[in-house]
Amino acid sequence: MADLTHPDLRDLSVDQDLALRTAAVRLAGEFTGIYGPETIEWFLHTSYEQFATAHTVPNYLPLLAERFTRQRLQALARVEGHHHDGKPVVVFLCTHNAGRSQMALGFFTTLAGDHAVAWSGGSEPGTTINPAAITAMTERGIDITGEYPKPWTDEIVRAADVVITMGCGDACPVFPGTRYENWDVEDPDGLTHEQIRPIRDDLERRIHHLLDQLAIPAR
Predict the structure, then answer these.
(1) H or E element that contains 20
(2) CA-CA distance, 139 to 38, in Å (whole number)?
(3) CB 4 within 8 A of CB 38
(4) Each residue's pLDDT tens digit, 114-171
(5) Within 13 A of 176's CA, how many CA atoms are on the CB side?
(6) For a Cys staple, 193 with which of 52, 112, 132, 152, CB 3.0–4.6 Å?
(7) At 93, is the secondary structure helix, strand, or coil?
(8) Which domains are present in the chain?
């Protein structure tokens, strides 16, 4: 990591500053012996900065930043060889990380269980998950309300064994040695949950096929 200069977060409220400091302590405990406080704080502050420009609920931002930082550090630990569990890592990328990639992630994590790791991201992340996509997935018994639109980062994509792209085009990052698949799946943005059902079902079929390719038994 060449530059650990912290972004300017002088406009934080007292509560936000305390929440970030508390998050840094929690993360330091989780990554003891792997990453020091300076690295953790840099990831936490840059994650916060990425969400602060798009989200309008200030009190929720430290939690989003902590969750995203945890994911980024987990990915970095895999890239740098600090984490060896043998599980394949799949990353789903689309434009807004609000519909297609979130539904694919929901199917994959539900069906793969503890046999794999999966993340998602967008080239232009939205602010909320598509409500119609949430409804369509609920019909399959899968709750994706705990997820949130987020960008992808180099360490997340570099940690992947398989990168599935859906509509992000030239914006999708490409790294040598990583397996890429582009899925031609319609963008559900603006559609009703009835209209999204065929997209959902297409994604479910594709996820089952992907699991077969990875030799992961579907639950």
Answers:
(1) helix 14-30
(2) 44
(3) yes
(4) 999 999 999 999 989 999 999 999 999 999 999 999 999 999 999 999 999 998 877 8
(5) 0
(6) 132
(7) strand
(8) 1-84 (1.10.8.1060), 86-219 (3.40.50.2300)
